[in-house]
Amino acid sequence: MIDIAILRENPTLVKENMKKKFQDDKIGLVDEAYKLDKDYREVLTKASELRSMRNRLSKEIGQFMREGNMEAAENNKRQVNEMADELKQLEELETKYGNELKAIMMKIPNFIDDSVPLGKDDSENVEITKYGEPVVPDFEIPYHTEIMEKFDGIDMDAAGRVAGQGFYYLMGDVARLHSAILSYARDFMIDRGFTYVIPPYMIRSNVVTGVMSFEEMDSMMYKIEGEDLYLIG
């Protein structure tokens, strides 16, 4: 998610970035976010000023009562009560505008680095570096599950019964090979100064929404119903 300050100061720059990404259909979001941000900050300012005034009047009530000026104390009480209703409305707008602004900002794409060549699809990709020549085999390349089946190293039927289509159990030597490769990769990186870390397997939505929109996250990641927790990829 881009910094709102950039959109606030230079909305044209944000729109130009969208064009570079061929996301012209999202350009209108910039104007929506710009106006909503303006309204949101105005509400924040009004609410802050009202809280400050309410606090001042509340302090004066005690002072007036000590001085015996009950009329002034009652007048302040009346104003404080009136402010409470107005402040409640402003706080509701704060929440409403804040949530709407966040939802729009999540749909606005991050900036493309200046070094990235522009292209509408894969056919316009630019090759930067090439190592050797690709080898084209003279035989049909088998799918990885076919290879594992030849070694009795996979059970898709049993896994399908417990987890659904597309899942599989790794068995015997194939399972051992899987673990061995992971161990080799782990030790390879540790020997080069990296710290081995096992992270939590679940993360909160605010961690993910920094890199993708809520709609993308909700459609691409497994979620625990009733909890703000998603399975890591």
Could you walk me through the main structural features you see in this protein, from its secondary elements to its overall organization?
The two termini are 20 Å apart. Helices cover 59% and strands 3% of the residues. The mean pLDDT is 90. The longest helix is centred in the first third of the chain and has 41 residues, at 27-67. The protein is elongated and about 100 Å long. It is mostly helical and 233 residues long. It contains nine helices and four strands, in the order H-H-H-H-H-E-H-E-H-E-H-H-E. A two-stranded antiparallel sheet has the order 1-2. A two-stranded antiparallel sheet has the order 3-4. The chain folds into three domains: 4-105, Serine-tRNA synthetase, tRNA binding domain (Helix Hairpins), CATH 1.10.287.40; 141-198, no CATH class; 199-233, no CATH class. It has helices at 4-9, 11-20, 27-67, 70-105, 144-150, 156-163, 172-190, 205-208, 214-220, and strands at 154-155, 169-170, 202-203, 230-231. Keywords: Coiled coil, Cytoplasm, Ligase. Residues 70-100 form a coiled coil. InterPro entries: aa-tRNA-synth_II/BPL/LPL, Ser-tRNA-ligase_type_1, Ser-tRNA-synth_1_N, SerRS_1_N_sf, tRNA-bd_arm. This is Serine--tRNA ligase. Pfam families: Seryl_tRNA_N.
